[in-house]
């Protein structure tokens, strides 16, 4: 469970890459309210450092956060002591009865702990459908193929206080997988500590995902924004509703 988002990258992600969660939060809360989900349990799959969980608790929801990274969960437990957090694969965890399930920032696309094939994805959708109360919501986003131009590699870096992270990205069009090679340096005492991780992300077609959700029984809506927050290019939001009857 400790291969991805280890201590230093978890810290850096929480410190320097929190905009997606925080800018998405108002729009997701609005979606919940529009669907008359004002309280009860929300299960957040791929909860990371608990930024979204904190916004949910502020809005008086109960929260169960699940993440495969022990370091992320440690940060989340400190940030949101009133929520429950679990170190586990979002594909394998038991989802209790709840009013909503969320998974933001392309979490279901990550190839961390299994072959992310269509059967596994459908099993996840079915498990979420079964756990949701009638009228419940499953809100999540994915990355589509076409993130990187064919045959090219992009490189970039981000710098914060006492840390820097370098990311190299490439896309395999045949396997439909985006690879991120991440090198981070974090200052510990007088020296910088290096950490290396490689993340693989399955890229999907929105129409195929919508079809699988509908096949499970969801009523599906897609968009490219959470409220006022427009997602980065090539990302799609799904709002999947379990019918009330």
Summarize the SSE layout with pairings.
Layout lengths: L6 H10 L2 H16 L6 E5 L5 H8 L3 E6 L2 H10 L4 E4 L10 E6 L14 H14 E12 L9 E8 L2 E10 L4 E12 L2 E12 L3 H11 L2 E5 L1 E2 L2 E2 L4 E7 L4
Parallel strand pairs: 1-2, 1-4, 2-3, 4-5
Antiparallel strand pairs: 5-13, 6-7, 7-8, 8-9, 10-13, 11-12
Helix pairs in contact: 1-4, 2-3
Beta strand count: 13
Low-confidence segments, given as residue ranges, are none
| Helix and strand element order | HHEHEHEEHEEEEEHEEEE
User: What does the largest sheet look like?
Assistant: 7 strands, mixed
Order of strands, main sheet, comes to: 3-2-1-4-5-13-10
Give keywords.
245 residues; alpha/beta; seven-stranded mixed sheet; four-stranded antiparallel sheet; 6 helices; 13 strands
Short description:
The chain is an alpha/beta fold and 245 residues long.
Summarize the structure in words:
The protein is an alpha/beta fold and 245 residues long. It has helices at residues 7-16, 19-34, 51-58, 70-79, 118-131, 206-216, and strands spanning 41-45, 62-67, 84-87, 98-103, 132-143, 153-160, 163-172, 177-188, 191-202, 219-223, 225-226, 229-230, 235-241. The chain has a seven-stranded mixed β-sheet with strand order 3-2-1-4-5-13-10, sandwiched between helices. Strand 6 and strand 7 (163-172) form a beta hairpin. It is globular, with a radius of gyration of 18 Å. The mean pLDDT is 95.
């Amino acid at each position: 469970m400790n291969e991805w988002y280890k201590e230093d990258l978890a810290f850096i992600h929480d410190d320097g890459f929190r905009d997606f969660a925080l800018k998405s939060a108002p729009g997701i809360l609005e979606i919940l309210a529009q669907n008359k989900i004002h309280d009860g349990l929300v299960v957040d799959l791929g909860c990371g450092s608990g930024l979204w969980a904190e916004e949910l608790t502020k809005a008086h929801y109960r929260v169960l956060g699940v993440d495969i990274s022990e370091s992320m969960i440690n940060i989340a437990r400190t940030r949101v002591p009133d929520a429950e957090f679990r170190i586990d694969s979002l594909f394998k965890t038991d989802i209790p009865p709840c009013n909503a399930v969320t998974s933001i920032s392309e979490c279901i696309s990550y190839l961390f702990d299994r072959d992310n094939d269509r059967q596994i994805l459908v099993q996840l959708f079915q498990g979420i459908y079964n756990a949701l109360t009638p009228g419940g919501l499953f809100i999540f986003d994915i990355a589509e193929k076409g993130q990187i131009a064919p045959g090219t590699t992009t490189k970039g870096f981000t710098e914060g206080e006492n840390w820097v992270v370098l990311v190299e990205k490439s896309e395999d069009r045949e396997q439909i997988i985006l690879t991120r090679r991440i090198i981070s340096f974090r200052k510990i005492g007088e020296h910088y500590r290096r950490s290396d991780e490689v993340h693989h992300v399955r890229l999907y077609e929105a129409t195929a995902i919508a079809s699988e959700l509908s096949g499970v029984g969801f009523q599906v809506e897609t968009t490219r924004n959470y409220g006022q927050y427009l997602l980065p290019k090539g990302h799609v939001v799904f709002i999947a509703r379990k019918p009330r009857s």
